[in-house]
Design brief:
- Helix content is 49%, strand content 4%.
- The chain is mainly alpha-helical.
- The chain has a two-stranded antiparallel ribbon. A two-stranded antiparallel sheet has the order 3-4.
- α3 runs antiparallel to α6, α10 packs across α13 and α11 packs antiparallel against α12.
- The longest helix is centred in the last third of the chain and has 27 residues, at 238-264.
- It is elongated and about 95 Å long.
- The N and C termini lie far apart (85 Å).
């Protein structure tokens, strides 16, 4: 491509591997997209051609941009690429190529299966709650959205399966690499890094334990509270989802289940020290199997309850227990 000029012709065998030539010959639309970009590219000056190829080569190690905020990606964004090429022919090509990735011939199912098999626990790696399925392929998300970063529209290192709630309902086309104010930010790259976060409920008011706030007020803090956890929350709306979709509607059920399990194990919950002990035991059990049934939330929640030193709360557990066992 670098050696093209205004007189160059779009001859497939000159620019594509023989296997890809077959694909192009079977897909007139894809061939048309490539030819449109080719005609735009060959008309560029040498400096513009060199710059485009440089941008394309530099972004191949795409995983590096997630942790290194000194890497400026403004020149890789759609508006800059369109300006460099002189039109949106590359953007149109990149968008169409992504639709092609979904075809069986491109082995996207095999790619998903490799990722699925490599996961120790088959839950969404971005929320840690929803199950990833084997019977069908989950949403494939562009970590850096293809609307903003056409150079990595089909880059394997920019594609990751995630649950529907994380992808379509929360992340959408948010820019994980820049804030709304245009400031570069870090994001944990899912294929080579992981984020170890503890949920902290210590600023919460437990329902029915504050005369001025009977409904209580649940609040989640992250430990550590840093740029990575802040980005994680902003992109996937984690705190709101954990509270609104899981903790608040299920809290009473979780407490009642706790009491019933204690009754089945013949544990008398008229003793606050024993209540604390059992809450701590349940918290450790949930934490060990954090990947099951919202245990990612229940584990630290029960740890907090075990150590809250809130006698009104412990008394409420005793009241539930005595009602269940028929004590007047």
């Amino acid at each position: 491509m670098a050696g093209t000029n205004s007189r160059s012709r779009f001859v497939l065998n000159n620019y594509f591997h023989v296997d890809f030539v077959d694909i192009l010959n079977e897909s007139p639309k894809l061939k048309e997209k490539f030819e449109n970009f080719f005609n735009s590219f060959k008309a560029l000056g040498d400096n513009e051609k060199t710059r485009f190829i440089e941008l394309l080569n530099n972004i191949q190690e795409f995983n590096q941009v997630f942790s290194d905020t000194t890497i400026d990606l403004d020149d890789c964004k759609t508006d800059s690429i369109n300006s460099l090429i002189g039109n949106d022919s590359f953007k149109q090509l990149a968008d169409f190529l992504f639709t092609c990735v979904k075809y069986n011939r491109w082995n996207i199912k095999d790619h998903y299966q490799l990722i699925y098999d490599a996961l120790d626990h088959k839950v969404c790696p971005f929320c840690g709650i929803h199950t990833l399925h084997k019977t069908f392929r989950e949403d494939y998300d562009h970590l850096a959205p293809k609307a903003l970063y056409p150079l990595v529209s089909i880059h394997p290192k920019n594609l990751a399966p995630m649950c529907h709630d994380c992808n379509s309902k929360n992340k959408g086309a948010k820019d994980i690499l820049y804030t709304d104010q245009g400031v570069r930010r870090t994001f944990v790259y899912p294929y080579s890094n992981h984020i170890s976060v503890t949920l902290d409920f210590s600023s919460s008011i437990i329902p029915q334990t504050d005369i001025n706030n009977q409904e209580g007020n649940w609040e989640i803090l992250f430990d550590p509270a840093n740029g990575e956890t802040e980005t994680w929350d902003e992109i996937f709306n984690i705190k709101t989802r954990y509270l609104t979709d899981f903790l608040i509607p299920n809290y009473e059920t979780w407490i009642n289940d706790f009491v019933l399990d204690c009754i089945e194990d013949n544990i008398d919950l008229n003793d606050s020290d024993l209540i604390k002990e059992q809450l701590g035991f349940f918290g450790r059990r949930f934490n060990r199997k954090w990947y099951e049934q919202a245990n990612l939330i229940k584990g630290p929640l029960f740890d907090f309850l075990a150590n809250c030193e809130n006698n009104l709360f412990f008394n409420s557990i005793t009241t539930i227990y005595n009602k269940r066992v028929g004590v007047a």
